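Researcher: Sequence recovery benchmark, item below. Answer with residues only.
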């Protein structure tokens, strides 16, 4: 029997990058996985790949900032697979700009996707996890920027710090219903989200793209190495299969030592 047989996971932003690898790893461990993303074609492609490999999966169109879409999507998953046991709140974007040029509309968009999205998906999932105190686990995709700041990333750093508060509150409220909560905090991972920033940061900081990688992205790591999607997905697997609430309300840095807590 696989570790997550009989469990159902919802992974937001799983049509790409980190979320996509998490979906594959959870499915391989036996979970039925809902790939919830703005990009339905991408979500369906991931679901089809999982199904082709013998796993259980479904693609769900979901804008995590849309309360009705979130509630409908999570309820659809519970109806399809019988429950929601694992929520990985992972959908995210990046917009870089110094504060004096940061558009208010961009600030609101960043906070909406990272924080409103985390809140709305949590609230929708808890309805199922709290039923008969069956319990579950919610993991938020934070960042080393949940603990550290970088220039140009005011909204991102603010939002990622905010997730620590939500997660710790849920750890306290959820305990009596057998719900645990964590934040995973990756360093830089080569995904479309990061690749887009390299030329943008080079232009804004007046340095080369190689310097953005070696100085800005990897300069504070212990070994100059990017974190990988596999590193993050294996951390998710460890936490989802951990047997007790000895681990709850924590934040886990997966960053080649960029930030040490
Ligand atoms: P990515 O761009 O590869 O994937 C993000 C996914 O989120 C995309 O499929 C996109 O369609 C989806 N998405 C965006 N807005 C959405 C919305 N409103 N509703 C639903 N889905 C939406 O990015 P990634 O690098 O895999 O990032 C995933 C998460 O990891 C983000 O929260 C990001 O902040 C975090 N993170 C990334 C890094 C990194 O270096 N890549 C480091 C630390 C944390």
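Model:
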């Amino acid at each position: 029997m696989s570790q997550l047989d009989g469990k159902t996971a919802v992974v937001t932003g799983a049509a790409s990058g980190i979320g996509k690898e998490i979906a594959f790893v959870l499915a391989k461990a036996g979970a039925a996985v809902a790939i919830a993303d703005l990009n339905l074609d991408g979500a369906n492609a991931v679901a089809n790949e999982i199904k082709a490999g013998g796993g259980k999966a479904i693609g769900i169109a979901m804008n995590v900032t849309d309360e009705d879409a979130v509630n409908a999507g999570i309820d659809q998953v519970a109806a399809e697979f019988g429950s929601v046991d694992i929520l990985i709140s992972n959908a995210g974007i990046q917009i870089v700009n110094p504060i004096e040029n940061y558009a208010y509309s961009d600030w609101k968009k960043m906070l909406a996707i990272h924080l409103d999205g985390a809140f709305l998906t949590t609230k929708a999932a808890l309805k199922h996890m709290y039923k008969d105190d069956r319990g579950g686990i919610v993991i938020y995709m934070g960042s080393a920027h949940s603990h550290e700041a970088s220039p140009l990333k005011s909204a991102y750093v603010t939002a990622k710090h905010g997730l620590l508060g939500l997660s710790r509150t849920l750890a306290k409220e959820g305990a009596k219903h057998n719900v645990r909560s964590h934040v995973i905090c990756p360093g830089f991972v080569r995904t479309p989200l990061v690749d887009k920033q390299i030329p943008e940061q080079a232009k804004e900081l007046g340095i080369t793209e190689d310097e953005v990688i070696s100085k800005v992205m990897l300069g504070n790591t212990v070994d100059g190495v990017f974190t990988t999607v596999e590193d993050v997905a294996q951390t998710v697997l460890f936490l989802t299969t951990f047997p007790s609430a000895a681990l709850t309300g924590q934040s886990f840095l997966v960053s080649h030592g960029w930030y040490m807590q």
